[in-house]
């Protein structure tokens, strides 16, 4: 009886821990521009290898990448060879396919290593919109001094001239919304910030409009 009770306690504890870990990775929606501006490293790369490293209880996955282009992080690490992430998706680890796709990967540098996760912006390169690619090359950098304020419930108002109201959460979530795919919040020469749609010239008479 004692052995059975001990087994039951271990089983229940393991089950509870598993459920806790599965629910552990929760990310706040972030506009691609903020993901760019808040990252140490932003690169376009192809994964050419992977290795499970015995770090921590679940291990760390080390991806070997072939860097195609760097958009942010030249001063920190001009060339990236490895990307590290948690081996478990429940701990926000990302799963990248080897020798198959090119990826846009954002991450932070810690003790000389580049780390990424589910709460960072990563995407297959061919799924990025033209506006997002232009944002990576130039436009997102122009908006790093601006603040993108998420709007979850109407009405939403900007509290300063440096804010753009992000309304994708009213009908979409995270990177999948229209503003996330097609707009950058950039600072104008006049000093204020407003949305800029990639394929149209900026309208300087409109501030914080959803569809300038």
TrEMBL record:
SUPFAM superfamilies named in the record: TIMP-like
Residue sites binding Zn(2+) per the record: 25
Keywords noted in UniProt: Disulfide bond, Extracellular matrix, Metal-binding, Metalloenzyme inhibitor, Metalloprotease inhibitor, Protease inhibitor, Secreted, Signal, Zinc
GO molecular function, one term: protease binding
Alphabetical list of InterPro entries matching this protein: Netrin_domain (IPR001134), TIMP (IPR001820), TIMP-like_OB-fold (IPR008993), TIMP_C (IPR027465), TIMP_CS (IPR030490)
Location of the protein in the cell: Secreted, Extracellular space, Extracellular matrix
Signal peptide (from-to): 1-16
GO cellular component, one term: extracellular matrix
Record-annotated disulphide pairs: 25-92, 27-119, 37-144, 146-193, 151-156, 164-185
Occurrences of domain NTR (ranges): 25-144
GO biological process: negative regulation of membrane protein ectodomain proteolysis; response to cytokine; response to hormone
Chief location of this protein within or outside the cell: secreted
Family to which the UniProt record says this protein belongs: Belongs to the protease inhibitor I35 (TIMP) family.
Protein name stated in the entry: Metalloproteinase inhibitor 3
Originating species: Rhynochetos jubatus (kagu)
Gene: Timp3
